Amino acid sequence: MVRQQTHRAINLGAIIFAAMWLAACASQSIESKSELAALLPVASPALTPPGSPCALTPLEDRTPIARPTATALPPQTPILIGRSAMIDTTFRSQLLDRVVPILVYLPPGYADSNRRYPTLYLLGGFAGDYREWSYWGVCQALEALTRAGKIQPMIVVMPDGDHSYWFNHAPVPGSNGKPWGDYVWHDVVGFIDQNFRTLPYAQSRAIGGLSAGGQGALMLGLTHPEVFSIVGAHSPSLRGADGSIPFFGTPEYFKQYDPQWLIANTQTWKQLTIWIDVGKEDTQWGGVIVPFHVWLDKLGVKHDFQNSWQGVHEDSYWTAHLPDYLMWYSAKLKSE
Known about the structure:
Residues 1-51 and 61-76 have low confidence and may be disordered. This protein has an eight-stranded mixed sheet, with helices on both faces. The longest helix is centred in the middle third of the chain and has 16 residues, at 180-195. The chain has a single domain (12-332), classed as Alpha/Beta hydrolase fold, catalytic domain (Rossmann fold, 3-Layer(aba) Sandwich). The protein has ten helices and eight strands. The chain is globular. The two termini are 38 Å apart. It is α/β, with parallel strands linked by helices. Helix 5 (212-223) links the parallel strand 5 and strand 6 (230-234).
């Protein structure tokens, strides 16, 4: 997957500026660890700076990415006020037998009510980490759209995937055989439901991802529709067991996770609401994604599809369409 070293100035700049302005107008802001005690899980996460829910401390092994240039907008009165937070923490996965990092966005007003919220799980690409969506501006987009009343308040979760492709690895040479798919639907969802005020129902859970995360979202939705009923695949890299990655195993092993096999041989897709998109100039995966969409149409598998947007398989495409993604998820998720 193509990765850019710098973040280009694009249309999201206006959204980011609006988010910053609206946060400043909010009647309450994040001020201290004690004020957020009710928000936090049992672990001791690192809090974001006061009044700056989207500001994350750069990881030691990653060069900070420049943010888009903000374009000034006329002041607006925020519709939704209250405290929000981005929590960067860890938890222990029983299935992986290791401590894993996780990023959790809590919407404006979370700390100021007892309300329960729908949850969106966002999976990164093969070369990314658990902060990938935050690098592309998801927090800024969430702040602007939620406070302006464009989307409903929701908890957004970004787990770590560690180059896993988000499914249970085959127990073959060159693979550690770890159950990365079960880790998501069982351990990650269990941790979030236990520690945050979620609506623990499939109709109130969405899962989406970019590139490898897009394929992972399809796989997890099709194999566990009782957990996730809403699935978004953004430029999904629809890879099969071609021998290039050992942990995919044999074609016979991998078919239990292959979206095409699952759709052709099971009925779980009937329980899902599905979105698929790909950039108009995406020559890396467009030649696979578009035929997949055509095949779904022929089978009568209902799904929203978009391939008219300009862009290739890189961060500028996903960043530009964060508002589109978030508004779609918001419209499909069932709230309290």
